[in-house]
Each structure stands twice: as C-alpha cells, then as structure tokens.
Fold this protein.
Amino acid sequence: MIGALPESLNVGGREYAIRSDFRNVLQVLEAFSDPDLDNAEKWIVAIFLLFEDFSCADDVEKAVENGFDVKEAAEGIKWFIEAGSEENNSCELPTYDWAKDEQMIFSAVNKVANRETRAEEYMHWWTFIGYFNEIEEGTFSFIVGIRDKLNKGKKLEKHEMEFLRKNRKLIEIRKPKTREEMQQEKEYQDLITRVLG
C-alpha cells in the first residue's frame, strides 16, 4: 500500500513485528560498525534489536534451531534499513558516519523536520531517513561534500581546502579499532612510558 510504514517483516511465511523506531535502526548500524563483532554476530544483533520476538542472541539462536531463516531475515532487515529502495551495491567510500557525525546529523535532521527528533517518543525509521535524505545545506552537508570530493579525487575549492586544513579530524572518517588493537596500543604506550619514564 502506498504511503504505509512497515511494522513487520516476513520470514519463512510468518509476519514478525519489528521495532521500527529510528533509534533501533541506529543501534543496528552501530553494531555493524563494531570491529569486534564478526559478520554472523552483527546479523544476530540486528535481528534481536529489530524483531520484537527476540530480546537477546540466545533467543535468535533458539529460533534458528527451530527453522528461523537468518538469511531471509537479513534480506528483510536490509530492505527495511534502505527504506524499501533497491539495494545499493556501490563500492564508494562513506561520506558520513552515524556515530562520528551524530550531533551534526541530528542538527541537520531537526532543521528539516522543524523539531527535535530525539525528543519524539516514537518516530518510524522511514520517516527519520526521509528527513535525513532531505538535508541540503549546513555544516553537515558541507562536510559530506568535501568527503565526497576527496573520495572521488576531485579538486577542492579554496574555501574547502581551508576548512579541511583547520578541521582535518572533523573531516576524516577512520575505521574503528578493535579491542585487541586498542589493548596493543595501550601496552605499547605503557612500554614507552616505562622505558622513557
């Protein structure tokens, strides 16, 4: 039905109610960027965050033992997160990061929505992403534009170069480090401190 906001996903011929609030989807996206989770763990987290029937990984694992199709659930989740649009197989580098850019994103979304979206008790993911997709101007849009040019190897305008020079950390999107990498860095810093200390 045109204009309907999905509140369930079909897996194995059964309709499963989903947690369709935008906050749940943002948690899923955060899980997918967690370097400490392998691909299977990310999908298990996504399922128990979005499907109302599940509240933890054990619930998902028990359902799988009883025939719940994780692959079909994953396809439904992708469709839902992409707001029903065709799958985008683009290999382009990202121009935004939900965690890093959180404050800028909410500021821009709130401007489009003309209200504080985080204060809403409930907002469907498709409504939220609709606001997000309408962001046209402001700091977030400017930064995304610079990132896009950098990703494509395009020349920056003089004012963009100046902004980049002054705000490199704001522009750069770095891959998050695993717990193991952070522990190795800490051990290395401790060693340096002991040696030089």
User: Anything to note?
Assistant: Residues 94-197 form one domain. The longest strand covers residues 8-11. DSSP finds ten helices and two strands in the chain.
